[in-house]
């Protein structure tokens, strides 16, 4: 699977896209069409700070829609994903229903608010890999770094195994 395929995939393979993909902002400039919907963990202090910054940059224009995946009643199945997958790393949705994740979400968000030149170098070979590696490190450790790891000791917000790693299996005699 290519890096592009790993960071984006189309959700609605057949039939009309579900309601969240209509492309209308859910706050502020409701008559503006959003360019990316960010699915973020509102209980993560660092994530919430980044989202607050993006909201300020958007200035109510509605170019970015925001959806808190930690909010009561949030239904990840709308995106054909589960909670653990959404909590593992940031995801975004494009108006056509394509799901993006990781650094690509930030590229799209900052481009939507006019800061595309700032994030453009993260598309360059080498820098792209460093940015993705740095984000993967953050995503893997964010619960611990933000003081939420103890709340997750029961496994309720554990991350799914990474691709290519097998779950331990029982050995039978």
Q: What does the model show?
A:
Residues 1-8, 10-31 and 158-173 have low confidence and may be disordered. It is built from 6 helices and 5 strands, in the order αββαβαββααα. The chain is globular and about 35 Å long. The chain has one domain. Strands 1-5-4-2-3 form a 5-stranded mixed β-sheet. The protein is an alpha+beta fold.
Features:
alpha+beta, five-stranded mixed sheet, 5 strands, 12% strand, disordered N terminus, disordered C terminus, 173 residues, 6 helices
Percent range of helical residues:
25-40%
The quaternary structure here is single chain
Question: Major β-sheet, in short?
Answer: 5 strands, mixed
The helix/strand series, from N terminus to C terminus, equals HEEHEHEEHHH
Distance between the termini: 37 Å
Query: Mean of the pLDDT scores?
Result: 77
The neighbouring-strand order within the major sheet is 1-5-4-2-3
**What Rg is obtained from the alpha carbons, in whole angstroms?**
17 Å
The fraction of residues assigned to DSSP E strands is: 5-15%
The backbone outline, from C-alpha atoms, is: globular
Concise summary:
The protein has six helices and five strands. The chain has 173 residues and is an alpha+beta fold. Strands 1-5-4-2-3 form a five-stranded mixed β-sheet.
């Amino acid at each position: 699977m290519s890096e592009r395929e790993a960071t984006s995939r189309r959700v609605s393979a057949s039939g009309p896209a579900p309601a969240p993909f209509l492309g209308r902002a859910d706050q502020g400039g409701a008559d503006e069409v959003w360019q990316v919907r960010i699915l973020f963990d509102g209980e993560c202090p660092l994530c919430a700070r980044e989202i607050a910054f993006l909201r300020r940059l958007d200035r109510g224009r509605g170019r970015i829609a925001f959806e808190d995946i930690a909010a009561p009643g949030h239904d990840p199945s709308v995106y054909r994903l589960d909670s653990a997958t959404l909590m593992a790393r940031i995801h975004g949705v494009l108006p056509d229903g394509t799901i993006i994740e990781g650094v690509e979400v930030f590229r799209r968000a900052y481009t939507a608010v006019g800061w595309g030149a700032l994030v453009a170098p993260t598309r360059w070979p080498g820098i792209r890999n460093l940015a993705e590696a740095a984000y993967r490190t953050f995503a893997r450790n964010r619960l611990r770094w933000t003081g939420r790891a103890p709340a997750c000791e029961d496994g309720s917000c554990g991350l799914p195994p990474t691709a290519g790693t097998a779950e331990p299996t029982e050995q039978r005699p």
